[in-house]
Amino acid sequence: MRAVLRRLGVYLLAAWVAITVSFLLPRVVPGNPVAGAVARASQSGNCNAQCIIAVEEQLGFNAHTSLWDQYVQYLGNLAHGNLGQSWSENAPVSSLIISYLPWTLGLLVVATTISFFAGTTLGIWMAWRRGTWFEWVLPTATFFQALPYFFLALVLVLIFGQTGTMLKWFPSLFGYDIYVVTPGWNWPYINSVIGHAILPAATVILASIAGFILSMRNQMVTTMDEDFVLVAAAKGLPTRTVVWYAARNALLPVVSNFTIAISLVVAGQILVEIVFNYPGIGFHLFDALAKLDYSLVQGIFVVITLVVLGANLLADVVYVLIDPRARQAA
Amino acid sequence: MTIDSTTLTQAPVAGPTPEALLPKAGVLRLPRSPKVIAGLVLLAPFAVVAVIGQWISPYSPNATDPQNWVQHVLVPGTGPGTGIAPNYYPLPLGPSAAHWLGTTVFAQDVLSQVLVSTQATMFVGLLAAAIATVLSILFGVSAGYFGGNTDEVLSLISNVFLAIPGLPLLIVLADYVPTAGSSILLVAFIIAVTAWAYSSRVLRAQTLSLRNRDFVEASRVTGEARFRIILAEILPNLVPIVAASFLFTTLYAIYAYVAISFLGLGGSPTSSPAGLWNWGEMLREGFANNAIRGGWWWWWAPPGLCVALLGTGLALVNFGIDEFINPRLRAAGLTRRAAKKAGIRTRATLGMTPVVGNRAAVPALAARSQSSGEAVLEIRGLSVDYGYGDEAVHAVVDCDLVLRRGKVLGLAGESGSGKTTLALAAIRLLRSPAVITGGQVLFHSRPVGGDGPSGTIDMLASDEEELRSVRWSEISVVLQSSMNALNPVISIGAQFDDLLRVHRPQLSRPARLERSGELLDMVGINADRLRSHPHELSGGMRQRAMIALALALEPQVMILDEPTTALDVVTQREILEELIGLRDRLGFAALFITHDLSLLVEIADEIAVMYAGRVMERAPAASLFKAPRLPYTHGLIHCFPPMHGKRERMQGIPGSPPDLKDLPQGCAFHPRCEWAMDQCRHDVPQLEPLNGSARAVACWLHTGAAKVPAELARPDPGVAEAHAR
User: Are B177 and A304 a contacting pair at CB < 8 A?
Assistant: First the structure.
C-alpha cells in the first residue's frame, strides 16, 4: 500500500504543477502575448468585443487584486469544482466538461482496452513464434507506430468514411447523427453512437496497438531467456503453461510503462477527435483554442491531466496486484 | 557415502552474466542488421532534403500558379436541389508533369512545400531532442550517481513531468506563448521541456547500476573527482542508451511539432510574424480547406507519409540500438537467416532443440562400452553446434557418456568446456542458436511407479509429445541459478501444483497440496512455505525447493548442473549431504556437473572430464582423482590445495581456456600441456580405453611408444583393488 500511496503523492504533485502552470503562464509571460492573440483572432472574426472583454476578465488583466490572491481564489474555486465560466458557450466550464467527458472516456477506455489486450497477445505470440512468417508483423507494426494518429485518421476517413470519397462505409463526422436521432436511451441513438465510434476507435487502436505489440514482444523475448521458463519446459508442462509463465513475467514492465503509453494515446486521441469532430474534450479543446476561451482551455487541460493521472494510478494498483514482490514492498 | 568437509573448496562465486552488463561502448558499433540498414536508407533522403530542400524545390512554396486558380468546384451537398446556398471551392490540380504532387487549393506546388517543410520539421525534431537529452542526462545521471536526497528531489521532478500528459501541456504552453510559432527555437525548447522525463528515468536506473560496478568503485577509491568519474567512467557506458533515447525523443519531437502545427499553434507561413513551412502546417491547411471531402489526397498524404517514413526510419535504427543493448533480442534473428540458408527448419518453441545432420545409429563400440551396470541414460557420439554453417561454433564434439541406474556420474571441466551444453542437449533443452548435429541419446526407461513409457527412447528422435512424457517424470533438472529457476510471480505451492496437475492428473487438489508439503518437508523446509513466493526464500532454501520439485515425480535420472555453485560453503555442504541422502533413499541416477573436481570425488561413482567440447578422460572417481592419466586432469586436481599432509606448492594450469571459435590444431590442450609432443600438435586424440582398466583417456601419451611421465602413471587404486581380490 505504501508504494501506491507514494505514487499518489507524485500524482497529486503533478496535478498541482499542471494547474499552477496553466494558471500562471498567461499571466506572467512578458509582453502581454494574449493581446496579440486577441488582435489576430478579432481580425479573423473569431473574437468579437464580447470575447475581448471575456478574455481579459478570465485572465485577470483588469483585476485589482494581487496575483497571489487570484491564485488562491483560483485554487479555492477548483477545490469546489468551479472551473470558471466559458464565454463562448456561456455556461460553467465544469458542466461543459462533464458533458464532453463521457465521449472521450468511452472512446479511450474501449479503444485502449482492445489495443492493450490484442497488442500484448500478438506480442506474446510473436515472441513465441520467432522465426516464422509472423516476423512480418514487426516491420508492419513499426510503420503503423510511426504514423501520427491524426494522419491515420485522415486516411481512414478518406477510405472508409462517409465524408471521404472512396468506400463511404462508416460515418466519420460527429459523435452521432445529429439530424436524425435524439439523444437518450433509445436504440437508434445508441446504434448511431456505436456506428460513429467505429472509425475513431479503429484509428486509436491501429495507431496505438503497435506500441503494445513491440514492447510486449521485446519483454517476452528477454523473459524467455530466463531459467524459470527453461525449467517450465523441462517440467514437461503444456506449451500454453510455459508461454503463460513467460508472459506473466514479461507483462510486468509493460504495465509499469503504461504511464508513457497512456500519455501518448490521450495525446493522439485529442487530435483524432478533431479530425472526426467527435464531441469529446479533445475536439472542444481545439474549438476553445480557436475562440480564445481560456477558461475552457484551462479547465480541459486540468481534466485531461487528472484523467491521465487516474489511469496511471490504476496501472500502479494493477502492478501491485500482479507482482508479489511489489505487493510485499507495498 | 559421507562428505569430508575439509576437502570442500569454495567455488568462485559466479560473476555477473555477460548479458547483464551493457556491452562496452567506446564506439557505438551498430550491428549491421537489415533493420538498421533499412532505417538508414529511409533516413538518408530526409537528411539530404533537409539541407538542400529550398534549392531543389521547383517553385516557391508560397507562389500561386494563376492558371489553376480560376477553377472552382461546388462543395457536395450545397447548391441547386439541396436548399443550401451553393458553395464553391477552388479546385486543386492533381499530380501532373508541371506539378509532380499536384497543387493545393491555393494553386501552390505541393512538392515544393514538402521539400521546403523538411528543414524546419527536422530542425525542430533534432534540436528539441538535443535539449531534452541534455536535460535528461543532467537530471538522470545526477540523480543516479549522487543518490540520497538529490536523487529523491530530481526523481520526483522527473516523475511529475512524466505523469503530466505531454501534448496537452505542450498545447497550453504553445498557446500561451503565441510568439512561439514564429520562433522555432522557442518551439523546440517547449517541446524539449515536455519530452525529457522518460529518458531521465531510464538513465537514472542505468547510472544506479553502473555506479556500483567495480571499475567505478575503483576510481572512487583512488580519489578521483566525482565530476571526472561521471565524465570518464559513467557517460561512456551510457552512450547506447543516450543514443536510443535521443532517437526516441527526435521521433516524439517531430510528432509534437507536427501535432501543434496541425492545431494551428506552430505559426502559419502567411501570418505575421510568419511561421515556417512544416509538414504539420501542410496537413492543417489541407484539413482546414476540405481536402478530405474533396478527395484531394495528393495535398495532405505526402506530408503525413513523410512523417511516417521518417518515424519508421528512426524506429528501425532504434531497434538496432536495442539489440545492441540487449543481445537477447538479436540472437535468434540472426541465426534464423543462417538457418534458412542452411535449409534447416527450426521452430521457435522452447524445449525442442533442432537435430540435423547425420543421425545414423551410432554403434556401441568396444571403446564406447564401459564397465558393468545397467545403463539408464546413454549418450553416444553427441555433437552440438552453436549457429549454423560457417559461423557455427562446435561446443560439443562426439561425446560418449553412460549414466548407470542409481549411480552418480560426475562431469567436470572449466567454464566453457561444454558440460552444460552436453547435458542440456541430451534432453533437448538448449535454446537457439544451438543445433544438435549428430549422435544418439538413449533413455532406457524402467519406471518405478509403473506409469510413463517403458523401454528405450531416443531423445533426439522423439517428438514433442514423447519428450514431454519423459520430462521431469523420468528426467528432471536442477540448474545452477536457483535464484532464477523458480517463477518469481507465483507461489512455490503453485509451482508444485501445476507440475502435479499435469503429470499426476489422478490426484485431487488436497492430495496435491499434501504431496507438495511432503516434498518440501523431505528437503527440510516447512510445508507452510508453499504459500511463499520465491523472493521470500533464501538462496539455499530456493535451491532446496528446486530439488524437492525435481524429486516430485520420482524420476529415474536427475541432471544437476552446478547445483551448489551459487551458494555459500556451509549451505553447499548441507545441500550436498541432503542430495546424497536422498539419492541413497530414492535411488535415482544423477549426472552431476561441476568445475570442482574435489567435490565430485566425494559423491560421484564415475567422473568424466571435458575440455574444449570433448570428453578427454573417464574413470571411476577414486582412480581419476588418485591416478589421473590425462595431463589436464592432473592440472585440475593440483589446482586445489589438500587440507591434510605436507604443504605443497600449488601449480595452476598455465595459459587460458581455449577459444572454441579458434581451437588449436591437434589436441586442443597441447598449448597448455607440459608434455606435449609433435603428434599432439597435428592429430586429435580419440577417447580410447586404457589397457586392463575400466577407464578411458584421449591422450597420445598413453598410446603407442610414448613414454608416460611419472605423474601420469601413478598406480590406479581401482586396478589395485581388483588385483587384491
Answer: no
Task: For chain A, give the number of residues.
Answer: 330
Pairwise CA distance, residues B210 & A70, whole Å: 48
Q: How far is CA B353 from CA B347, B463, B464, B696, in A?
A: 9, 11, 11, 29
B166-176 vs B235-262: helix crossing angle, rounded to 10: 60
pLDDT tens digit string along B107-127? 788 888 888 888 888 999 999
**Candidates A26, A304, A312; nearest CB to B168:** A304
* CB < 8 Å from B in window 176-205 of A: none
CA distance B614 to B383: 9
How many Cα atoms are found within 13 Å in the side-chain-facing hemisphere of A31? 8
CA distances from A225 to A127, B326, B330, B432 (A): 11, 12, 12, 10
Question: Please, which residues 19-38 of chain A have a Cβ atom closer than 8 Å to chain B?
Answer: 21-22, 25-26, 29, 31, 33-34, 36-37
Is the CB of B167 less than 8 angstroms away from the CB of A232? no
CB contact (8 A) between residue B346 and residue A155:
no
Which domains does chain A carry? 2-87 (no CATH), 93-290 (1.10.3720.10)
pLDDT of B607: 92
Minimal CA separation from B310 to chain A, in Å:
8
Give CA–CA dist B378/B401, Å, rounded: 6
Interface of A with B in 48-87 (CB under 8 A): none
A29:B177 CB<8 A: yes
DSSP three-state, residue B271: coil
- Among B10, B2, B1, CA closest to B643: B10
- Nearest Cα to Cα of residue B593 among B367, B408, B431, B366: B408
**What ipTM, to 2 d.p.?**
0.89
Query: Could you tell me the three cell numbers for B216?
Result: 567505478
B273: exposed, middle or buried (C-beta count within 10 Å: 0-12, 13-18, 19+)?
exposed
Distance between terminal CA atoms of chain A?
A: 4
| Residue that is written with C-alpha cell 568519474 in the block | B229
Contact check, Cβ <8 Å, B333/A130:
yes
What is the rounded distance in angstroms from the CA atom of residue A49 to the CA atom of residue A51? 5
DSSP code for B334: H
The partner residues of B394 in beta bridges, in order of sequence, read B385
The model's pLDDT over A72-96, given as tens digits with 9 standing for 90+, comes to 888 888 888 888 888 778 888 899 9
**Shortest Cα distance, chain A CAs vs residue B56, angstroms:** 26
Distances (CA, A) of B590 to B402, B404, B410, B542, B543: 11, 9, 8, 20, 16
State the DSSP code for B79.
Answer: B
Q: Which residue of A has its CA nearest to B333?
A: A131
What is each CA distance from A251 to A117, A222, A246, A256, in whole angstroms?
A: 11, 11, 9, 9
Tell me how far CA of residue B370 lies from CA of B256, B365, B366, B618, B639, in angstroms. Answer: 73, 10, 8, 10, 28
Helix (H) or strand (E) holding B301: helix B297-325
State which residues of chain B have pLDDT below 70. 1-32, 65-75, 87-90, 176-182, 267-268, 270-275, 330-349, 357-373, 447-454, 482-483, 639-652, 692, 718-725
Chain A: residue nearest B175 by CA?
Answer: A289
Please state the φ and ψ torsions of residue B458, each to the nearest 5 degrees. Answer: -90, 110
Does the CA dihedral B389-B393-B399-B401 come out positive or negative?
Answer: negative
Residues paired with B90 in a beta bridge: B72
Reduce the DSSP state of residue B411 to 3 states and report it: strand
Cβ of B160 within 8 Å of Cβ of A14? The answer is: yes
CA distance B394 to B660: 7
